[in-house]
Amino acid sequence: MRLSETKVDLFSTGSIRAFELGAGDIAALQRFYDANPEYHWIVGGQAPTSDAAWQDFHAVLPPGWPFKRKWLVGFVDSTDLLIGVADVVSDLFAEGIWWRATNAPNASGSHLAMLKFESVTASRWESESTRCG
Q1: What's the rounded mean pLDDT across residues 23-36?
Q2: How many CB atoms are closer than 10 A to CB 34?
Q3: Residue 38, pLDDT above cutoff 80
Q4: Parallel, antiparallel, or unpaired for β 16-20 and 99-103?
Q5: Which tens digits make up the pLDDT trace of 47-83?
Q6: Dihedral of the CA atoms 16, 51, 22, 127 (nearest 10)?
Q7: How many domains does the chain have?
Q8: Closest to 104 measured CA to CA, from 13, 19, 33
Q9: In the chain, is it the N or the C terminus that has fewer CB atoms within a 10 Å radius of its CB?
Q10: What secondary structure does DSSP assign to 8-19, as a single string?
Q11: Reduced to 3 states, what is the DSSP secondary structure of residue 68?
Q12: The CATH number of the domain where 57 resides is what?
């Protein structure tokens, strides 16, 4: 479940790093989903499909839903192993409203990374929007 290339960190906490996933990471994301199907069972009532990562990466919001940006954030451990992912939408319906769904099984440190992720404010990321995409 290693990723395709070196990434620019959005943030790190302890040995966990977070960064934006790219199209080259779809295979690693699918392997992560296959190894950790619990999220898909809870949310969709079934195991992840063979193209779940591709579907998530290319997913679009319903027509008429205003937003600024949608992307996937990956979380890796000190060995660059993918241990969690967050689907993020900024400025959903109104400026400053962020939505996220996280998939982080009981990997060591992943919950701490999720808490850190939640503490990163939209204004900080907006000020760094050129770096984040």
Answers
A1: 90
A2: 15
A3: yes
A4: unpaired
A5: 999 999 999 999 999 999 999 999 898 888 888 888 8
A6: -70
A7: 1
A8: 33
A9: C
A10: --SEEETTEEEE
A11: coil
A12: 3.40.630.30
pTM above 0.90, yes or no: no
Per the prediction, the chain carries an average pLDDT of: 77
Q: What is the pLDDT of residue 63?
A: 95
133 assigned to some structural domain: no
Residue 34's identity, in one-letter code, is D
Q: Which amino acid is at 120?
A: V
Residue 56 tokens, joined = 């998530």
Residue whose token pair is 């995409």: 133
Q: What one-letter code names the amino acid at 57?
A: F
Question: Which residue, chain included where needed, has tokens 């790190």?
Answer: 12
Q: List the domain range (segments joined by +) for residue 45.
A: 11-128
Query: Is residue 90 assigned to a domain?
Result: yes
Give the type of residue at 87: D
Number of helices (H), then strands (E), belonging to the chain: the values are 6, 5
Asked whether residue 84 is domain-assigned, the answer is yes
Tokens of 53: 């990562």
Higher pLDDT residue, 125 or 88?
88
Is 2 inside a domain boundary?
Answer: no
How much is the pLDDT for 131?
A: 39
pLDDT above 70 (res 121): no
